[in-house]
Amino acid sequence: MSFSSLGLSSSLLKIIAEQNYNKPYPIQNEAIPAILQRKDVLGIAQTGSGKTASFVLPILELAQNKTLSRNRHIKTLVLVPTRELAIQTADVFQLFASSLPKKVKAMAVYGGVSINPQMMKLQGTEILVATTGRLLDLVASNAVNLSEVETLVLDEADKMLNLGFKDEMTQIFNLLPKNRQNILFSATLGSDISSFRDVLLHNPVLIEIKAESSDIELITQTAYHVEAERKGPLLRYLIKHLNMTQVLVFVSSKHTADHITDKLNINGIESAAMHSLKSQGARNEALQKFKKGKLRVLVATDIASRGIDIQFLPYVINYELPRSPKDYIHRIGRTGRADSPGDAISLISPDEVHHFVVIQKKMGKRITLIQTNKLELKGY
What we know:
It is built from 16 helices and 14 strands. By secondary structure, it is of the alpha/beta class.
């Protein structure tokens, strides 16, 4: 199936071709026609499966036939869990909207930066991508009105619920008109999503895309058994010894992210940390430098990693394991994308071995632990 068979206009098809999108992903094949028909949609698909374009493209198509809303009365609202994902999603809207005959203004609003510039830019906005806290601040300031929202998108709903945004989302839902189109995307269909679906969605089209084994097979997974105090030197050894040029390192805490970054920089490996205590300006700068290959290592916590979308990322390193096997899949799935191979490396301390066995069972793949006790790490 091709994009031309999904009901999109020639203007969108032109820029799709310019962006070298050869054929739609499975989630796009099913979601785009359903959204164009104004149906509620529940899409379950892993990160990196093309979910963003599956709602961006039909929403922009529908926007061509909508009448202009009253100023600051949003027509389409997209809720996301993190600032980075808000920026990334708005960028995708803006990219494809640039080709349309009718101008459609999309923007992102999120915390961590001054609210006043966002309030000023809201004028004329039809599509708003928002984190929940900042959106409620803007509503309280009468800077935006949600009473005319026609389409609501809840992206990465599994993470939003797990991260404790349920109360804020309930407040937002109470501000929305009952008669609207609802689009919900999630990486998993957990119990929270199931109960939430019954309240939010009306006769939804359920689209569930199973992860193909080939998706993980593109990723070469390696694990090193290492004492906790030797993880830092081993990390620096691997980066230098393997001449890694673009490495995303996952850690479990903000303190660890800062500590590792400091050590890497002291040892001549240009690095930056990315976590919730960093200013939004610092996070944006680090991410842009990393994407452009001007920063060798980006050290990130799981929460901050939402929205890190790099098509040809060669290396992911788990400095510490995540709590959930699903988060492990999410992490390593940042590499091995767009049919390009990638390497995922995990540093496993003795007290992480059992948890790593659980992750492998859930993943259905066995990874041999490489012993490092005889590896000389002095000087790293």
